[in-house]
């Protein structure tokens, strides 16, 4: 059993100009992400990278095929059950950090775990540990409006990890950052994933970032091609 298994995924949309025609985005995609491994997917804009990631996280449904997370077929779950499952098993990091402005850094990290029903003491201890690991111990009580873009994205990483998910899904997590902040966030994300023995599925245009992962794929012509694998 693996944290994420994508089996024969197809995704099509009705054409805007002709509702009787369909546009294929993904065609028979299969991918396994092993425990403790990082997998990156690169490809041109519009090839379906984000669509594949949304399907992998149960945010979208495939036209056909199945996605198993920790042995559970999330494509069969209704919206309520899928939401509960995502909260417990999947961590998301997006290009836009999506932090809540009414809460400070520590509170933003804690929210998913409190929603899951964990004790406040347990959640507080883990949130503080994660923020310290990502060099944010001096910023945890600051409002999000006072933080830099790099700091906000590091908080988003902590939030994604707070519930100890089996799989982290990251969609262009450094796409809105300058080169220096992007490099820092890349290193912190990959090192923290390794430290906690999590699994990572990353989509990015950043080739250098993608090459740091254990496996690197190209999404082209609706399917995946393995480009490199670390020895």
Architecture per CATH nomenclature, i.e. the level-2 architecture? 3-Layer(aba) Sandwich
Could you say what the CATH topology is called? Rossmann fold
What is the tally of beta strands?
10
Please write the string of helix (H) and strand (E) elements.
EEEHEEHEHHHEHEHEE
Q: What is the H level of CATH, i.e. the homologous superfamily?
A: P-loop containing nucleotide triphosphate hydrolases
Q: Which CATH top level class fits?
A: Alpha Beta
Net shape: globular
**Average predicted local confidence, pLDDT:** 91
Instruction: Give the strand line-up of the largest sheet.
Output: 6-7-8-3-9-10
**Count of DSSP H/I helices:** 7
Based on secondary structure, the structural category is alpha/beta
Main pleated-sheet profile: 6 strands, mixed
Cα-atom Rg, whole angstroms?
18 Å
How many structural domains are formed by the residues? Answer: 1
Kindly describe this structure.
With 231 residues, the protein is of the alpha/beta class. It has a single domain, classed as P-loop containing nucleotide triphosphate hydrolases (Rossmann fold). Helix content is 34%, strand content 28%. The protein has helices at residues 49-56, 79-89, 105-115, 120-133, 149-161, 179-195, 207-211; strands at 4-14, 22-33, 38-42, 64-69, 72-73, 90-94, 167-171, 199-203, 215-220, 223-229. The strands form 2 sheets. It has a 6-stranded mixed β-sheet with strand order 6-7-8-3-9-10, sandwiched between helices. Strands 2-1-4-5 form a 4-stranded antiparallel β-sheet, with helices on one face. α3 packs parallel to α5 (149-161). The protein is globular, with a radius of gyration of 18 Å. The protein starts with a strand and ends with a strand. 42% of the residues are buried. The model has no long low-confidence stretch (mean pLDDT 91).
């Amino acid at each position: 059993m693996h944290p994420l298994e994508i089996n024969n995924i197809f995704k099509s949309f009705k054409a805007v100009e002709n509702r009787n025609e369909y546009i294929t985005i993904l065609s028979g995609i299969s991918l396994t992400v092993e425990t403790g491994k990082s997998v990156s997917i690169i490809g041109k804009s519009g090839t379906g990278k984000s669509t594949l990631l949304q399907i992998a996280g149960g945010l979208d449904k495939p036209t056909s095929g199945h996605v198993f997370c920790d042995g559970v077929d999330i494509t069969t779950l209704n919206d309520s059950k899928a939401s509960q499952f995502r909260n417990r098993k999947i961590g998301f990091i997006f290009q836009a950090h999506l932090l809540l402005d009414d809460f400070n850094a520590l509170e933003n990290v804690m929210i998913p775990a409190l929603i899951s029903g964990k004790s406040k003491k347990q959640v507080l201890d883990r949130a503080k540990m994660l923020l310290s690991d990502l060099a944010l111990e001096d910023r945890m009580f600051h409002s999000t409006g006072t933080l830099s873009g790099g700091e906000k994205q590091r908080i988003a990483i902590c939030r994604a990890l707070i519930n100890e998910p089996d799989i982290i899904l990251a969609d262009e997590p450094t796409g809105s950052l300058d080169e220096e902040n992007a490099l820092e966030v890349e290193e912190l994300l990959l090192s923290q994933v390794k430290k906690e023995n999590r699994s990572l599925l990353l989509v990015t245009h950043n080739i250098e970032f993608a090459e740091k992962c254990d496996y690197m794929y190209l999404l082209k012509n609706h399917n995946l091609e393995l480009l490199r694998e670390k020895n």
